[in-house]
Design goal:
Layout lengths: L11 H33 L30 H33 L5 H15 L3 H12 L10 E3 L3 E4 L2 E4 L1 E2 L3 H31 L1 H25 L2 E2 L2 E2 L4 E2 L2 E4 H28 L2 H9 L4 H31 L11 H12 L2 H30 L5
Antiparallel strand pairs: 1-2, 2-3, 3-8, 4-5, 6-7
Helix pairs in contact: 2-7, 2-10, 3-7, 4-7, 5-6, 7-9, 8-9, 9-11, 10-11
Length: about 375
């Protein structure tokens, strides 16, 4: 006997699809109404709804630029300068905050009472005070109180420090430096690929074949180190009597923002690291000690790799917060993307377009960070067979 066919208006599968289509249609209609109203209102105000204003001359200067820029360049070029400034603060801040956070997090579990208490004081101070207040303090009481540019502090490694910023030793723009950098980057990439290949080969064919890959990785490491030591052509800053020329210049605003973000975020990362380490069972420590491993090797080879599985998800949140907190640069007049965008808004009156660009840029940066961290999280998870 044939089964009786269920009418489509009583079929749950059909009803779920129809419901989703209706919700999607309602959202699209509401979105179309909002876009139409915004477009009509902008035209009434004499403001075209497009982004053609980005091709107009900016007419303002930017004090700290990592790429060439002048006041005659377009608004689009000014936004690009802001994006580059935001990216260099965010990327460098993530690296430095991670390193400092790991050190402080491990110090929180130290057997030395003084080290443990100093780490605790650092975490409690920086984690429980506003970041903007810390930025003001670092900028006003730190960088601006340094000697003037006419009498800068001379630090080791040809470094000059003044209230205008820092001039440090930096690779010169030359063919030799370019070739050396290509060798260093290629060595790192090929080394990582071969190391991953070595691990897979050792699982399938044993350690004898894996040693061949290990020798290749060591050779690439030697090439990279030699290129770093002897291939790069360095440009040292020179003091000319009333100014410092040459090398890499980092402004006081950039330094204050970077230090503030690093110290603040590292306090949170330290607690993430401490929690991750404490999540590893005590038996792992005891087994490592029974095998004769020193505490440093136990941490590096046994405990920390297991703690990463717990640490990476909250670390992702801290990295995202650091990228978004970089918008506080406006408080100390560093021209990041947020400040440059609002300067353009003040000159053009294109509020909606500028806000939309700000949302898109920060959303893109955070999605890229999330994508990278999610990929790393999948790699460190236990592979079940």
């Amino acid at each position: 006997m044939d089964e009786q066919k269920i009418p489509f208006w009583r079929d749950d599968r059909v009803l779920k699809i129809v419901g989703q289509v209706i919700v999607l249609a309602v959202i699209l209609v509401i979105g179309a109404i909002i876009v139409n109203n915004v477009s009509v209102n902008l035209r009434r105000l004499g403001l075209p709804p497009g982004f053609g204003f980005l091709n107009s001359p900016a007419g303002f200067s930017i004090g700290d630029t990592a790429i060439p820029y002048s006041s005659t360049d377009t608004f689009g070029r000014a936004l690009l300068v802001g994006i580059v400034n935001t990216l260099r603060v965010a990327l460098l801040g993530i690296v430095l905050a991670t390193l400092l956070g790991i050190v402080v997090g491990i110090a929180r579990l130290s057997n030395n009472w003084l080290v443990r208490q100093l780490a605790l004081v650092y975490v409690e101070i920086f984690r429980n005070t506003p970041l903007l207040l810390q930025l003001f303090l670092i900028y006003q009481a730190g960088f601006l109180k340094l000697p003037s540019i006419e009498n800068p502090l001379r630090l080791p490694a040809a470094t000059y420090l003044s209230n205008k910023g820092m001039h440090i030793l930096w690779p010169a723009s030359s063919l030799r430096t370019t070739i050396a950098l290509i060798l260093i980057v290629a060595s790192i990439i090929l080394g990582l690929i071969l190391w991953q290949r070595r691990l897979k080969v050792m699982e399938l064919q044993g350690g004898s074949v894996g040693r061949n890959y290990q020798i290749a990785v060591i050779a690439l490491a030697v090439i990279g180190v030699l290129a770093l030591l002897f291939g790069l052509e360095w440009e040292a800053p020179q003091f000319t009597g009333n100014s410092v020329d040459g090398g890499l210049y980092l402004s006081s605003e950039f330094g204050a923002l970077l230090f503030g973000l690093v110290f603040y975020t590292a306090a949170f990362i330290a607690e993430v690291v401490r929690a991750g380490i404490q999540s590893v069972s005590k038996g792992q420590w005891e087994a490592s000690q029974a095998l004769g491993l020193q505490s440093g090797l136990t941490m590096r080879l046994v405990v920390f790799p297991q703690a990463l599985r717990v640490m990476i998800p909250p670390l992702t949140s801290e990295y995202l917060n650091l990228a978004k907190n970089s918008s506080l640069a406006a408080g100390i007049a560093f021209p990041d993307f947020f400040q440059v965008a609002f300067t353009i808004n003040n000159q053009t009156g294109r509020v909606l377009q500028v806000l939309l660009l700000i949302m898109i840029v920060y959303l893109t940066i955070n999605l890229i960070i999330s994508l990278i961290m999610n990929g790393l999280n999948q790699r460190v998870q236990i592979k079940e067979r």
